[in-house]
Specification:
The protein has 9 helices and 7 strands, in the order H-E-H-H-H-H-H-H-E-E-E-E-H-E-E-H. By secondary structure, the chain is an alpha+beta fold. A 4-stranded antiparallel beta sheet has the order 1-2-3-4, covered by helices on one side. Strands 5-6-7 form a 3-stranded antiparallel beta sheet.
Length: about 240
């Protein structure tokens, strides 16, 4: 007489293998200097153009290179000036559109566009290859130091706890994920456009002090990975077979 195998408690192994959420999620908060990478890239390109003489061969004037670099630098520094919230960003865009329309309307009365063209066309900022090379090397060194430091200062979220790895000797601080609350904030639109970055806030049940991680790159992807990891753990806990 054959015996019928007893049903076993369902598991999430097939679901986990299909989606395969990570066993742990690494989160690296970055300092604000990483948002200067557009200036670093432009300085490096312009250094190569001026050092190799490619700009002069292609008819690109040193005035155009200097003016373009200064414009990129000033726009890049806006990231450090203030936070571009959604409402503030919309207000700035609407204000710029309004100013452009006003200038075009005034141009029908007086020759304003031509005058502004002559004013901005008279700006002649000249920067040589040594400046671009020094700035590119300096920013590159700082970004490299930040990258190396991020290998020793980061957070790790696994099924049981949050670990804060810090210090070059491997110091670790731990919080339990039981009853953990997580919030995401995208408080600066420009920073989000540059690195898809935002803020993650963890509130462990074992402490009243929140863990605030600023400038987390790809914050939406990191949030999804943490949610998937913790949701799979919750399902496994809820599907534990009861006492026989």
């Amino acid at each position: 007489m054959s015996s019928i195998p007893e049903p076993t408690a369902p598991t999430v192994s097939t679901t986990a293998s299909a989606g395969r959420p990570p066993e742990s999620v690494i989160i690296r908060p970055w300092p604000k200097i990483v948002f200067l990478y557009p200036t670093f890239v432009v300085a490096t390109i312009f250094w190569l153009l001026t050092w190799l003489g490619i700009s002069s061969e292609n008819g690109v004037s040193t005035q155009a290179i200097g003016n373009t670099f200064m414009l990129v630098l000033l726009l890049n520094l806006l990231v450090f000036s203030f936070d571009f919230s959604r409402i503030k960003s919309i207000t700035i865009v609407v204000s710029v559109i309004a100013v452009v329309l006003l200038v075009l309307w005034l141009n029908t009365k007086i020759e304003l566009v031509g005058y502004l063209g002559r004013v901005f066309g008279g700006i002649d900022i000249r920067v040589n290859a040594h400046f671009f090379g020094f700035l590119s090397a300096g920013l590159g060194f700082l970004l490299l130091v930040v990258f190396v430091n991020s290998r020793f200062h980061y957070y790790e979220v696994n099924a049981r706890e949050i670990l804060h790895h810090h210090g070059y000797l491997g110091d670790v601080q731990r919080w339990s994920t039981e009853g953990l609350e997580m919030n995401k904030e995208i408080y600066d639109v420009v920073e989000f456009l540059l690195l898809r970055s935002g803020r993650l806030i963890f509130q462990p049940a074992t402490t009243k002090k929140a863990i605030v991680l600023d400038n987390v790159a790809n914050v939406n992807r990191i949030e999804k990975q943490v949610n998937d990891l913790l949701s799979v753990v919750a399902v496994r806990l809820n599907q534990q077979p009861g006492p026989g």
